[in-house]
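Loading example: each entry is read as two labelled lines plus one structure line.
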Amino acid sequence: GESVGLHLPTLSVQEGDNSIINCAYSNSASDYFIWYKQESGKGPQFIIDIRSNMDKRQGQRVTVLLNKTVKHLSLQIAATQPGDSAVYFCAVTGGGNKLTFGTGTQLKVEL
Amino acid sequence: DVKVTQSSRYLVKRTGEKVFLECVQDMDHENMFWYRQDPGLGLRLIYFSYDVKMKEKGDIPEGYSVSREKKERFSLILESASTNQTSMYLCASSEPGQGYGYTFGSGTRLTVV
């Protein structure tokens, strides 16, 4: 079945620096990819998505990069702020209507 | 905004009790899901439903059942709660078909003592 892995369980960055969170997936047929942010005590919230016919998509301070050749997905956060501290998950389509989630990277922003 | 509402934020139940976790969504979504979230294990799918009265097992259905009598409501049932079911439970809903993300509820943190 599909597996999704995140490269680092924890990432610490200085406020104002850029953050990069990585994710690898196994199913080459996956065609939709999402990043979620989960703050402490809350449910995951949608940040940004990308479809397999694209390799880059930008939002407000966030960019998602997709490399289908090596099955790798990354989330870049520009000018990281304390409010960005959270756990970040990638999710990819597996079969049918289901998403498969990575285990999450805890982003810690140091002042 | 799509709202997915889970009826309880925190629950404490005793071993052997029957536990009901309720989830309601207000955007007429076809699909609904129940996950549990544990440290180091990520989100694991318990059950999901693509339509009223329809349910399918996810990756870890043992010890759980579900009910979907109305489109907007998806209930997770722990038939006889055990301490290893202490976890964060997350409900989500989505439109049908690939290419749609999930909207999650705020979660229910269940402790079984």
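The mean pLDDT of chain B is 93.
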